[in-house]
Amino acid sequence: MMSFEKIKKGVLAGIWFIFLTFPIMVIRVNTVENIIEWRWINMLYAGVGGFFLSIIWDELLRKQEANKNKAVTGEMPILQRMMENPSVRLPSIIGLVIFVCAFPYIFSMYQTNIMISALIYIMLGLGLNIVVGLAGLLDLGYVAFYAVGAYSYALLNMHFGVNFWVALPIGAALGAICGMILGYPVLRLKGDYLAIVTLGFGEIIRLVLENWNAFSQGPSGIANIPRPAIPGIEFSLSQATVFIYFMMILLVIFTIFMVHRLENSRIGRAWIALREDEIACQAMGIDKTKTKLTAFSLGATWAGMAGVVFAAKTTFINPASFTIWESVMILCIVVIGGMGSIAGVIVGALFLILVPEYLRAFSEYRMLVFGAVLVIMMVFRPGGLIANVRKTYQFKSSEI
Amino acid sequence: MFAKPINLKVQKFKFMKSILNVEKITMRFGGLKALDNLDLEVNEGEIVALIGPNGAGKTTFFNCITGIYPPTAGNVLIAPPGQSSQRINGLKPNEVTERGMARTFQNIRLFGSMSVLENVMIGRHCRLKSGIASAIFRPRSTVEEEKQLIKDSYEVLEKIGLSKYVNELAMNLPYGAQRRLEIARAMATDPFLLLLDEPAAGMNPHETKELDDLIVWIRDNENISILLIEHDMKLVMSLSDKIFVMDYGKKIAEGTPEQIKSNPIVIKAYLGEDADA
Prior knowledge:
Helices cover 72% and strands 2% of the residues of chain A. Chain A has 16 helices and 2 strands.
């Protein structure tokens, strides 16, 4: 079954790999003794590795091709089908709840902290998912709203002593307002043009924060932001972490609930219609302006809220936390997780935030692995980890 | 199956009321005059056809009166039944639809990854009210509204004969059914005038016949007047009460099918100078 052609291709790939990795894998300059070490054994590894990788790659691509026809029929993926089954659904939900509740007590504070950032990214991902996944508006400046939220808490607290619980809705509201401010000028733009303008907006916010010293204390940032607290209770650092963890869990559940409701409402349908066909959508009586603005502002609301939590968690913020890289990261979460799918965004966020953290041992190769994962994902699962098979309303004639 | 359109009109509509009145509409794209002082009128209960060679400006005309392009000059007046006449130039497409003029597209523009029912539900969007707050809190009124919406949408599908596809994705429908779904979606907006842009394009004779019946049925039973662009002359001649002929952005003729059939200017526009030879 393994044809000669394939082996030939594999051998060529192996040779190509040897050639590519030769300078880094084989030659090593020992600067202490001023000699060159030739590590020929590595060449063998590269060659054999390249050969097998190429064969596996080919095989997987072939399978992908074969599966393509199935995907179009809109059949639910296995995971989604399994969750429909109540005998699987209930135990897995109970297990999940126990795990989530026990997490901070089983694992160290370090782990809990990582989990908190993952939860923050879930919230960001769910917010961006409204804009990108549902309404189909490619927003590369999403981190701007995150910054707005974080700075609104930091500044309000610094100047007026506003506490976390008051800042949370204020941050969300300011995020929503900024969403509208961004949304308004880009109403006419689509696709790549929209992406570039939003990217510019994100950078503008960061640059303003970086350079307007009187307002935001510039690059040195704002320190000593209080953690969220319950009046009258003194938290130790570890208790505060656990508290933020559970608060984030509740906030994420709240976000999921809200996004789910929005998705299955009149507005959610309008967003999806807008994504599918803008002109037809308008001709069917949907107000494009209003629909786009609600998408932008409701998406930004979550970023604003997540920003407040972020500021409270790290107790220190500066503009370096809100670079374009963050936007890209959040977008990756949405795309890798599966556009438009809530479960997908959650899995995507956990994957993209937790995996690099636990790969710290290989931190030199982190970006390499990250890049490779992105490429592999887009080739084999272009719909994302949990591709969204949107549950369309199932009509039953008994309902009339 | 259906009575002759002409007779029916006389029985049903004693007083002919103009519901769409387009006066001297002009549309320029830079130096190009895509529409040149075009007049057109549709009366209540009529099926009116707009024909003309390719590139005559028919679709541009539709785009102008439905708000996709704002016309350069002229008036578009509508008079929904029971309301006084109003000018709608420069309104946005969704506002035009809200006022009761719904359209279909020449190249099918369905929401492919939504189900057939959801496509029709989108059509009813502008007749509903629930906003963000009711989406989140889902009060009883919203639940009721959604229920009613599903019921109404299903009824529209039943009327158009698409109820067997109700849960299919729109993109998986056969071509003829997609065309009908476009009509269903437009009807869901509760229009008084339906604008159909080449509804029979790409259909086989059998499907065209069904469409013919469907259009007459909509006019007679739903009280919706129809303005259609069509190239299928058999369909146009059998269906329409009145035909407008366009060429190079100008109206070159108007009249009943019989008048148009024998009009030398029309024959010239379609077949060229030596048509009568």
